[in-house]
Design goal:
Layout lengths: L2 H4 L15 H5 L3 H9 L1 H7 L4 H10 L17 H14 L1 H6 L1 H12 L3 H12 L4 E4 L13 E5 L2 E8 L10 E7 L5 E7 L5 E4 L14 E9 L4 E3 L7 H30 L16 H34 L5 H32 L16 H11 L7 H11 L19 H8 L1
Parallel strand pairs: 1-4
Antiparallel strand pairs: 2-3, 3-7, 4-5, 5-8, 6-7
Helix pairs in contact: 3-5, 3-6, 6-10, 6-11, 8-10, 10-11, 10-12, 10-13, 11-12, 12-13, 12-14
């Protein structure tokens, strides 16, 4: 085994990376991750935005890592990307979350059959340009969008308001879901500095506070025709991809929890009269708590990387020329990420709570910021509700039912006044 192969994850007992070349791929990024980690707690406590960390990642080529080598990237596979995201999340999960939609857009460009669009966006991504999100509408309809793209004498313009616009404050572009002139579902891309775009960091959630998941309004924002894409043409495993992204982020938070609780236990000098050792670092019960947390983080990472393999198969099926096989691969990727979601969530939520059992009451002091891990995990885990995932997986196991291709959140259409009595009569 070479020196390169024996360093990094393996020596840290997180297991081998997802490929023989992973350590070489990760090596240039690790000093950046370490630099990001140094300021993570202070940024969280002071609600400092993550402009600088994202700039460091851009300069290192991280935001283009999935691009083919000939297009200016590293040709990273999806399992390799997932492992890199775990490492980044161990440094600061806010940074990872702020780049979530960017990597989703990269995935979409790698899947597109529009050669002109692909060439245009590969150049932008290779140059370090990033994309944020603007899809969810607070109180919007379950189907369709209130935000609209309309034709004017001067060209296409978009008007509307979006919430959860994660990462847009840090990005060069915004990926925006809209209703077209005939009510069709479209996505459009506009620059964040375009006239009429107003991004407000009003996210008031208790977790992921630096992800800038606030409100963005669009007032007569001009849209280039070549930046309009039918929603049906976006990459087919997007739901699985965005969930895998959360799995990797959660696994990384698990590593961060492990590192911080281990460091705090090692440094702790106070003990109890009924403890099992003169120091916490020698107390078998305390060590068992730390070991349990580390085991949870290890398992979460292994599960996330296994799920990433299913997405790699979905990506490769896109170019195999077998539509039925592609659909099946997409559905299996969705199932694998659903199976992983509830398990990984439970593992890391438990670890982020249990860490306090290894320490004293002083560990709850706000300046230590140890509560941020639970808050971040709880916030991430509230996306894509996990209560539905076990049912979907169980329906597949029992009845062979494939998961829904895509899902939305919003207000359902009003039901007819006689709908409920009719349903009851049918029962």
């Amino acid at each position: 085994m070479s020196q390169t192969e024996s360093e990094g994850q393996i020596e840290s007992a997180w297991g081998a990376g997802p490929s023989a070349r992973y350590e070489a791929l990760a090596e240039p990024f690790r000093p950046v991750f370490a630099r990001i980690a140094e300021g993570a707690r202070a940024r969280e406590l002071n609600r400092t935005r993550v402009h600088e960390p994202i700039r460091w990642l851009k300069e290192a080529g991280f935001t283009a890592v999935r691009l083919p080598v000939e297009a200016g990237g590293q040709g990273a596979s999806l399992p390799e990307l997932a492992n890199l995201l775990i490492e980044l999340s161990a440094a600061d999960s806010n940074v990872t979350q702020a780049l979530r939609v960017h990597f989703g857009v990269v995935e979409d460009i790698l899947n597109t059959g529009d050669d002109a669009r692909r060439a245009r966006w590969l150049l932008r991504i290779a140059a370090g340009e990033t994309t944020g999100s603007a899809w969810t509408e607070a109180g919007g309809p379950l189907e369709g969008f209130g935000t609209r793209l309309t034709e004017t004498a001067g060209g296409l313009v978009v008007n509307g308001t979006k919430y959860y616009t994660t990462g847009s404050l840090y990005a060069d572009w915004i990926d925006l879901g809209v209703a077209g002139p005939q009510g069709e579902e479209l996505s459009v891309f506009v620059r964040t500095d375009a006239p009429g775009v107003a991004i407000v960091d009003d996210w008031d959630g208790f977790g992921q506070i630096a992800s800038a998941s606030g409100t963005t309004t669009f007032t007569d924002v001009p849209v280039a025709r070549e930046e309009v894409v039918p929603d049906a043409e976006r990459f087919r495993y997007s739901a699985a991809f965005y969930q895998l992204y959360h799995l990797a982020t959660l696994a990384g938070i698990g590593r961060a929890v492990t590192a911080e609780v281990a460091g705090a236990v090692k440094a702790r000098t106070r003990t109890y009269t009924h403890a099992n050792g003169p120091r916490s670092a020698a107390d078998p019960q305390v060590l068992a708590v730390v070991g349990r947390i580390r085991g949870a983080a290890y398992a979460a990472g292994a599960i996330a990387l296994k799920a990433a393999e299913s997405l790699q198969r979905a990506f490769e099926s896109r170019f195999a020329g077998d539509e039925a096989a592609e659909e099946r691969a997409n559905a299996i990727a969705e199932l694998e990420t659903a199976q992983a979601q509830t398990v990984v969530t439970n593992l890391i939520l438990d670890g982020a709570t249990t860490l306090f059992d290894a320490l004293g009451a002083s560990a709850t002091r706000a300046p230590l910021g140890l509560d941020r891990h639970w808050r971040n995990v709880r916030t991430l885990s509230s996306h894509n509700p996990r209560i539905y995932k076990d049912r979907i997986v169980g329906d597949f196991a029992v009845n062979g039912t494939l998961p829904p291709y895509q899902w939305r959140i919003g207000q359902p259409h009003p039901q007819p006044a006689d709908a409920e009595p009719a349903r009851q009569a049918a029962e």
